[in-house]
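Pinned message: reference record for Tocopherol cyclase-like protein
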Amino acid sequence: MITSFDDYPVHQTAEPVAVPATGDRNAYDRYFFNGYDPDRGWFFGVALGVYPNRQVIDASFSVLHDGVQRSVHASGRAPTDRALTRVGPISVEVVEPLRVLRVRVDAPEQGLSAELVFTARTPAVEEPRFTRHNGPTVVMDYTRLTQWGTWQGRFGTGADTVECAGARGTRDRSWGVRTVGEPPGGAPPRALPQFFWLWAPLHFDDHCTHLAVVDDAAGRHVYESACRVPLLPGADEATPLEHARTADVDIDLLPGVRRSASATLRLACWDGKERITRLTPLLTFQMRGIGYFHPRWAHGVWHGESAVGGSQWRVAELDPAAPENVHVQQLVRAEGDGQVGIGVFESLMIGPHAPLGLTGLFDVPTRP
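Predicted structure (tokens):
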């Protein structure tokens, strides 16, 4: 099962690169990108994932523009060669590793197209490895890199073509094990699912900041990472980062919705200072537009040798409390340390979370 990557000194096991180190059916390797312009009110997201033990590759491209979110979804049999990062009308190309990537979309039936180039503003930041169990079963075990950048190029949505030269955005690459695809069967869980996830990559003029938090049902952090990220070219992946000692997030929820009306990031730094950043949401991007909790186009599901489809909705007509709409990325204005920035506040709140008054699986808060 030799492929093009086997010609490089990258092997981590005695197997060819195409053979995962784990036999877990939920092994995955994924690209994610977003881009946004708060002045013109648009936001796009891209995802492309490979699930080698399921032999599936899938991708989505979704644009929120003028109050409408349009998506194209594609799925097929995964190629053995990991260099082939294209499925249906969507492709991701690594032009220069960790610095320049290209996204192309050609989906006229869904009214979507794109010719976009992401150029890094910062080094890639390695987030701490995250592992989560359900009883004895590993349900998450992955590593992610996050990187801030700018976009050049254009995308088409509906009848509009949008130029996005200089627009900001974030990308990540994650790989490992995560629940994907069709349910595995076996014994049912003994308790309601619980997952409380916050992710906040922010751009400022002279630096970027990062925060990622996972809480248990009591509101205790079981995963916590926050840092200040320097810009290229003055820094690279070997440059030490300024990490926070602790990170906390205060959230004011929208009435009846598991989503923020505003949020405040509080970082206790090793120099003894507290750094406070206030986030004000500007618009909301539904993550099901790129497969998360999508009723049909969820990640890793087998749709046959080749399948392409689309979805579309008006944001104002959605029920924000519906389970499929709980996972969101909010474009936010960020204010802190005398600076104003822009970025994303991603949230996924499943199950209980005592500090916010959440008790059931997808119940809405009842606090005043």
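Pinned by admin. Summary line: The radius of gyration is 20 Å.
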